Fold this sequence. Notes:
CATH topology: Rossmann fold
CATH architecture: 3-Layer(aba) Sandwich
CATH superfamily: P-loop containing nucleotide triphosphate hydrolases
Strand content: 15-25%
Low-confidence stretches: 1-20
Mean pLDDT: 90
Helix content: 25-40%
Number of helices: 9
Structural class: alpha/beta
Largest sheet: 8 strands, mixed
Order of helices and strands: EEEHEEHEHHHEHEHEEHHEE
Number of domains: 1
Radius of gyration: 21 Å
CATH class: Alpha Beta
Amino acid sequence: MSSVASSSAAPGVEHGPDDARGPVLEVRNLKKYFPIKTGVLSRVTGYVKAVDDVSFEIYPGETFALVGESGCGKSTTGQVLLRLLQATDGTVLFRGEDVFAAGGERMRRLRKQMQIVFQDPYSALNPRMTVGAAIREILRVHDLAHGREAYEKAQEVLVRCGLEASHAGRYPHEFSGGQRQRVVIARALALEPSFIVADEPISALDVSIQSQIINLLEDLQGEFGLTYLFISHDLSVVKHMADRVGVMYLGKLVEVAEKHEFYQEALHPYSQALLSAVPVSDPLVKKKRIILTGDVPSPANPPPGCPFHPRCPHAMEVCSRVVPRLRVTETGRYAACHLVHPPE
Length: 344
């Protein structure tokens, strides 16, 4: 499903043609800085810029994938969107409503619509509660079902996610990793949300199980019209799952593109390096690997200018001075790179 950013989107990003549907989620200039405290008095001596001025939109029914190396800020972005972490700055609008300004009953209503599936399904579940009780609890908290009705609904969502009704009486340790992830998905689905953050939902699972969970997420999306923010470092999975791809590096969004355009010809040098590392199934296809030199800089002390320039094989003098903005190209793609958008 194709979509391009609308003119009502985040300030600081240039946009293409309007999308009549309007975004489900608008992220504008989002920042999340973690303070660095040192000394006996724990004075703040600096900040880890985990998410640094990130803006994007997600449209109804689509899967927007955030990709990048570990530590680039993609999981932090997902948690800040849902207010599991407090944002340092920026705005998140869900169907036009300011998530960060919502409180009390308004936030409860939003939480029913915005759910998350965590990377580690075991730590996401209470080991002292049966999975059925865990689902019934959130139904009770949100006043969606009580008593027998809640019990039956818990069984219903477990069955819909590929488990059995009798599994509601089991504890998390009695399930395999793949089954536990199905439980976590069922718990999120029980509130009938419209938007789900899937934070590395298959990275902790065996390869043989990963495709089953991906198929389940796709089936649920088609059945219930769900919108996903899919966070992953596995570009092979993203190619199968996503509609659009956003690439993060050192807390910043460096490229946004439709999936087919991205995999056919990435614009940003970092994106090109990531794609060069994706294995191909055909042994006759020779693929040139782009090896990046140096290590990822510390988010506590990012380099001046473009954060990628110390490792970029195409870096120019201007790259060390001027931070490139995420801007739209003539073809409607977005990149934060002086090679794509030469400085004036």
